[in-house]
Amino acid sequence: MRYLFSIISLSLLFASCSNNKETASAKPFCDTTCNTDTFKFAGDHKLKPVVTISVNNCIADTLSFSHEAMPASRQVHMGTYLGHLVRLNNSAISAYFKDTSYVWLTFNDCATGRGYLLKLPFNKKESIRKMSSAINSFDKKFVLPEDLRAYADYSTIYVEDIATGKSETMTFKEEYKIDWDNIHETIDSVNISRNRIYVQLKKDGQIVPIEKNISL
Fold this sequence. Notes:
Elements (H helix, E strand, L loop, with lengths): L1 H21 L16 E4 L7 E7 L2 E8 L7 E4 H5 L10 E6 L3 E7 L6 E7 L7 E3 L2 E2 L6 E2 L4 E5 L3 E6 L5 E5 L15 E6 L3 E8 L2 E8 L3
Parallel strand pairs: 10-14
Antiparallel strand pairs: 1-2, 2-3, 3-4, 5-6, 6-7, 7-8, 9-11, 11-12, 12-13, 14-15, 15-16
């Protein structure tokens, strides 16, 4: 299995390097200086839940999460699971622990700015949730409260309370061709509160504002 991960990682690395040559002039979202330290986040529950992400060749490698009552940690290979190689920086990653139920891991790739959300349940019977088109507040043009998370597809934005699971949606009224590695080509800005979703989209050189009242 480790050999398979290595092959996939190398393939993704070559693809990433090729893409980086094309976008070399683009300003990185956050500091891409090579980091070799493991990222570690800990919850305040008595069973000491923890999330770690190891780094290999400057790239996020293995994600592990567990607590003291688990016989073994849950693990995923980041590049394989995300389908992309990502560079992380402490300025654009956070973790919210819901006791020993789950963790919301929120981060942006420093090379492209692409936002990600992972909901990590400690119970192995539950699947990990992955959102690779996240609207994260690490981006200065995306504003939302600390206890809400947002992500989008090509026609809808989704908002979820990380503590309760309550959610709201707003459609864009039509489908947009969004490049999630260059999200601001289409989604100019987002402002979300517990009472409103407000999005400014770009279409034909014009700003298209869309908003909806919600209740979270």
